[in-house]
Amino acid sequence: MAVRSGAGTGPEAVADRAWRIPLRGVNAYALLTQEGTVLIDAGNRGDGRRILEALRAAGIEAPRHILLTHADMDHAGGVRAIVEATSATVHASPEQAELLAGHGRPSALRRFGRLLTGRLACVPDLADGARVAGLLVLATPGHTAGHVALLREADGVLFAGDALAVRREEVRLLGAALTEDFAKATASLRRLVELRPSVVLPGHGNPLSAPQGALEAALRRRSGKR
Ligand SMILES: [Zn+2]
Hints:
Layout lengths: L11 E4 L2 E5 L4 E7 L2 E5 L6 H11 L5 E5 L5 H4 L2 H8 L2 E3 L2 H7 L30 E2 L2 E5 L8 E5 L4 E5 L3 E3 L2 E3 L9 H13 L4 E4 L5 E2 L2 H11 L4
Parallel strand pairs: 4-5, 5-6, 10-13
Antiparallel strand pairs: 1-2, 2-3, 3-4, 7-8, 8-9, 9-10, 11-12, 13-14
Bound molecules: zinc ion.
């Protein structure tokens, strides 16, 4: 079921000490941890300031850490403005950190403006199995190489990034124009289904609580496809 219907402009509580910050067509999330406020993804360019204002208005401390599920423009575009205002530390997977630093070679899908460029320094510590700012890092490639999802193990809250999307309470993979490797994306989806998360917080679409049925249905639809 949808955690909440209708996107307001301010942060909306989606789990204990966790909020969705709905932006134009994409979500960022904030959560409180022992290491301060952690932001997961940062929207498009121009959303950085919007995120900071939304947090301030809700009385949530500015982020100390920004964890990027991947480097696409709609997830990493707002990072620079937040870093300049807060000196938060940015974390990304080793592959995506290379791209953000202006090294590495983006895939054909991402050569034309989808990827954030401009040499952003990040700590490349979002490697599979690592625990960063209280979250377990899950390598979930497919949408992009080096994509990660993040799990709060204590209560099964899953920050899925673009490993999946939610549309009308249905879970699906992103379309062919946005997915580098469907076989990997399907394997990543299977991994997330097997975690049996309590809440799925997607990069695109509404948060889903009690998501297991929708996750398994998505995997069934994928099986047999490449
Ligand atoms: Zn996206």
